[in-house]
């Protein structure tokens, strides 16, 4: 029988090296994610084997509840070989022992186990053959499975996510219409700039505009600054910018050139005249669009931020956490160009994948359809599990937790 040793305060370097080099590597199980979750207590747990090798880690977030109770949560964790039953049982038996001392009602975890991976246009309900094996293993440690839920709101972390993988042909395999939309952005002189804290102000403004448009609450400037300060090596903001003044000036200059060319074109050159007239109509349309937009801009000088993404690289993974856009520039198609630039950035840094975030399991929502423009793979995770610690209060605590979650999601 193997001998294990449990620790609750693993060194940061050792902890992160283990997570980053593990097949289940995930940003939410990085050491410093505890710093992001400021309103939770935490423990950096781990298990060593008889050779003093770290064989499991778990960032445990601890939520304080009324009456002195707590709940433990391991987002996308713990990190270990889940089929190693002796290790799994040991880890959770030790965690339960500590949880009892902290008056914990239940332990929630949602491991990064994929039970299905497929292209969204090839919807697949056939889960991997070992899915049930994992569920049975977790049952042996007393865990309750929440089932194969379908909605993002059903779980803390989305059970379905839209992910672009680093393959040799990922760029050439983008849909034709996506490539066309990127060209449309180029025609509008949309440029992509990258940075960190110096871009937070503009990025926050774009997120606020998205919140107002969609009627949702995302995050604020302070939170974005916290993310970038917590991950100074892996955090990045992509901003799509354009210069309306320059666009308008260029369109007016094209108009003058076309007018002179039309004046100097013989009347019998009907084919050329038609071509010039089509170009003039397109130019006049641009002038009308750009000038109207300029009239509605408070500060139209210089480059204007029109869309943005905040992403974090951790190990060989990239999480595209937040995005925002100025709807007035929707026809400029900035998001298509900046998403592709984000993928390039991640893959140039050695990332295996770049996750665009959660989608509904039905794959029929607007978010899924937008993300489909980048030819992603849909990852279906195994879902959430709860382990009762206080068996008497477990059921009432679960109901209270669900009520609070529903209330928070509706606010």
TrEMBL record:
- UniProt record similarity statement: Belongs to the FemABX family.
SUPFAM superfamilies, sorted? Acyl-CoA N-acyltransferases (Nat) (SSF55729)
Coiled-coil boundaries: 259-293
| Family annotation (InterPro entries) | Acyl_CoA_acyltransferase, FEMABX, PG_Glycine_Bridge_Synth
Q: What class of enzyme is it?
A: transferase
Coiled coil as UniProt keyword: yes
Q: What is this protein called?
A: Peptidoglycan branched peptide synthesis protein, serine/alanine adding enzyme
Q: What EC number(s) does this enzyme carry?
A: 2.3.2.10, 2.3.2.16
Lineage here is: Bacteria, Bacillati, Bacillota, Erysipelotrichia, Erysipelotrichales
